[in-house]
Amino acid sequence: METHYPFTLPPLPYAYDALLPELDERTMQFHHDKHFAAYVDNLNKLLADCPEAQSWPLERLIQDWPRLPEDIRQGVRNNAGGVYNHDLYFNTLHPTPVTSPGPALQGAIDRDFGGLQELKAAMRTAALGQFGSGWAWLVSDKNGRLSVHKTPNQDSPLPLLPLLGCDVWEHAYYLPYQNRRGDYFEAWWRLIDWPQITKRYEERTASQTRYPNP
Ligand code: MN3
Fold this sequence. Notes:
Helix Hairpins; minor pseudopilin epsh fold; mainly alpha; three-stranded antiparallel beta sheet; binds manganese (III) ion
């Protein structure tokens, strides 16, 4: 992912049918090629006439959108969030996932939740409890302490670092699961790329210089 404008759509890191049977090819095509692509295109259009924000990293756009001109503020909030969230979402799923975190992350999960099944229960509560469109998140603070959150729309938990995000917009699951968000959550959980999440966590705890540090 580019660090600033102009943003381009990263390719899906696996085949469209690679996540079957949990997520089908058509869902992945629409989710990546239409929804994710639209967030990238819309963000670029909004920033095209705003030179002062073209050098801003994506993470700054997500956090400092209230400083932008009023006519693009809400659009940047929605679409910068959409770009960041979907980049994370597709990169934290895997066709043949390793189902357990590495030692550093597992230790933090045990400390902060009591275990992986307790983390899963907290994520499920957040995912199913988000009214309407939004996300459930596993995040790390700057000291490596973990917590679970939910956000509406494409809002981000930044500056808390998102390690893992469950997209609960209907476009993420409606074709295969219709109204059964809980079934989608269980399928999504089976696809989590724990080595990738562990790497993200270790980078976070190794370096506390990430912008902007809470
Ligand atoms: Mn989505």
